[in-house]
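Propose amino acids for all 178 sites.
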C-alpha cells in the first residue's frame, strides 16, 4: 500500500519501523570498528535511546537546536551540542576532527524544499566529522563527493538513505570493508 493511502498512525509505524531497521543494519556495518556515533536531530530522543542500546559503550555526540527530552533521555552535557547545526557541527569538527564511524541525520520536515536546501549544507558538515569507511544514515537524500549510496532493508515502506564515506581525499573505499 503506498504511504499516502495509510492513516497517520500507519505512516508513523512505517517510518519508525524503517528507521529502527536502518539503525540496526548500520550497527552491523560499523560493529567492531572504532569511532563515535553522531545523532543529528535529537527530537524526542527515540533514536538516541535506540543508539545507546545498539552501541554501548560507544560515545554518541548529539546535535539539536534545543533539548526537549525527559532527563533520562538527555545526553551528557559534554556530548551535547545545542544550537544551529551549521555552527555546532563546525565546532565539533574543530574539536574532534574526523572522529565518527556512524552519523544519523534525522532532520526532515513537511517542507521538502527547506529539507533539500538544508541537506546541501548539512552533508559537508557531516562529512568533516566522518572517518573513512564510515556510514551516514538520513531521512532525507543528501549528496557528497566520495559518498557511495548503500542499499537499506525495508525502505519500500518509507524512504531512508545510507552512504559509505570515502577517505579524506574524497576517494571511495576499495571495498565495503575499507
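Proposal:
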Amino acid at each position: 500500500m503506498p504511504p499516502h493511502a495509510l492513516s497517520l498512525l500507519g505512516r508513523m509505524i512505517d517510518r519508525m519501523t524503517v528507521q529502527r531497521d536502518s539503525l540496526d543494519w548500520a550497527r552491523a556495518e560499523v560493529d567492531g570498528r572504532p569511532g563515535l556515533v553522531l545523532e543529528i536531530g535529537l527530537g524526542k530522543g527515540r533514536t538516541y535511546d535506540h543508539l545507546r542500546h545498539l552501541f554501548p559503550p560507544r560515545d554518541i555526540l548529539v546535535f539539536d537546536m534545543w533539548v526537549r527530552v525527559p532527563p533520562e533521555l538527555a545526553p551528557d552535557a559534554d556530548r551535547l551540542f545545542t544550537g544551529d547545526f551549521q555552527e555546532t557541527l563546525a565546532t565539533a569538527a574543530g574539536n574532534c576532527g574526523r572522529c565518527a564511524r556512524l552519523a544519523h541525520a534525522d532532520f526532515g520536515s513537511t517542507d521538502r524544499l527547506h529539507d533539500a536546501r538544508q541537506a546541501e549544507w548539512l552533508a559537508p558538515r557531516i562529512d568533516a566529522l566522518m572517518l573513512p569507511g564510515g556510514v551516514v544514515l538520513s531521512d532525507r537524500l543528501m549528496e557528497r563527493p566520495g559518498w557511495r549510496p548503500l542499499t537499506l532493508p525495508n525502505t519500500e515502506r518509507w524512504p531512508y538513505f545510507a552512504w559509505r564515506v570515502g577517505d579524506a581525499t574524497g576517494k571511495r573505499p576499495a571495498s565495503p570493508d575499507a
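The chain has one domain: 3-165. Residues 3-165 form a domain with the Rossmann fold fold (CATH 3.40.50.150).
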